[in-house]
Here is the input.
Amino acid sequence: MEIITKFNIGTGDMLPALMEEVTREKFSALVSTGTIEKYIDDKFDRKVLMADLNNIANQVLVVYVDNKPAGYAHITAKGQKPEVLGSKRGIRLAEFGILQQYNEDAVRLSLFEKCMLVTKSYDGVWINEYAESPLISFFESKGFVPQDESFGLEGLPLPAKCLVKLRV
Here is the structure.
């Protein structure tokens, strides 16, 4: 199995389709179909998505398994910064998801390591994930620390947990 993670380049249909599929898999057992579809319509509207992709404050990484898109991460300077970062330079992993059929340690690690490489010039990285996400233990194992604060999930009625990785 060949695994590679790279920056998303271009504005084809692959990325929106991947984002939508990951979202459906991630949240379908947690919220109603109507809620998921509204969330997808709002969050992955083609015009909004293309504007985000063309904004220098955003980067999207895609992990491929045998040349097939298997997951993605969205890195952004947007979003409410956790208090622990204070005046430090912080960056957010706004989204991090792997399709269920590719959800293996090596795939997740490839995407994560590229995210950490891309964000290495920042003092800290944070992610806001739904409270029961299986990804929380993964991020904690990589040095992310749960915070007392959280910022919600921007359109989904789920409790969230904020995790921060500080670089000293």
